[in-house]
Amino acid sequence: MRKVIFPVANSVDNYIATQDGGVDWLLSSDEIESILATMWKSVGAVVMGRNTYEFIVANGMDSYENVENYIFSRTLDPANHPKVEIVSEDPAVFVRELKEKDGGDIWMMGGAALARECFRAGLIDEVHLNIHPILLGSGAPLFLEIEQPIDLELIECKPLPHGCVALTYRVKR
């Protein structure tokens, strides 16, 4: 069975973007790029919500190369987005079915609402956080409200250049 991984860069106060959607506060380094390159080797599919997809399109991308790309939307016209599969069905049902198929890991690239639905359904196996040394004070939250706690087990904690910290957690079942 494929693993569902929720990888995300966030501020210390758990925002993934500023109020206006800005992410210019994200820091990069050769080490961070190397970690991402290594992790990408296990990825077979990317799932994301419409807002995250529209953000990457606005920044010059239309899909992630060499992996399956699934976008959850009830409003996007598939004819206008030929490099991705637009999915209008329930995200939890779709991700559960995708998880049972052969292939590499599934990266849930964005959308707090999408992540919440998949956490509720018990589908997310790991959470990878790259915490950046900044307090945004407000913006797009990393997590939306959930009904019950989700226990995590720390797998790795790695300090990175520029004061970032990479945390890898396994979701306890």
| Rg, Cα atoms, Å | 16 Å
Strand content: 25-35%
The ordered H/E elements are EEHEHEEHEHEEEE
Overall body shape: globular
pLDDT < 50 runs, ≥5 residues? none
Could you characterize what this model shows?
There is one protein chain. This protein has 173 residues and is α/β, with parallel strands linked by helices. The protein has one domain (4-171): Dihydrofolate Reductase, subunit A, CATH 3.40.430. Helix content is 23%, strand content 32%. The protein is built from 4 helices and 10 strands; from the N terminus they run ββαβαββαβαββββ. The chain has helices spanning 30-40, 50-58, 91-100, 112-120; strands at 4-11, 15-17, 43-49, 68-72, 85-87, 105-110, 126-132, 140-141, 152-159, 165-171. The strands form 2 sheets. The protein has an 8-stranded mixed β-sheet. Strands 2-8 form a two-stranded antiparallel ribbon. The two termini are 15 Å apart. The model has no long low-confidence stretch (mean pLDDT 93).
Q: Would you spell out the secondary-structure blueprint of this structure?
A:
Elements lengths: L3 E8 L3 E3 L12 H11 L2 E7 H9 L9 E5 L12 E3 L3 H10 L4 E6 L1 H9 L5 E7 L7 E2 L10 E8 L5 E7 L2
Parallel strand pairs: 1-6, 1-7, 3-4, 3-6, 4-5
Antiparallel strand pairs: 2-8, 7-10, 9-10
Q: Notable features of this structure?
A:
173 residues; alpha/beta; two-stranded antiparallel ribbon; 32% strand
Q: What's a concise summary of this model?
A:
The protein is built from four helices and ten strands. By secondary structure, the chain is α/β, with parallel strands linked by helices.
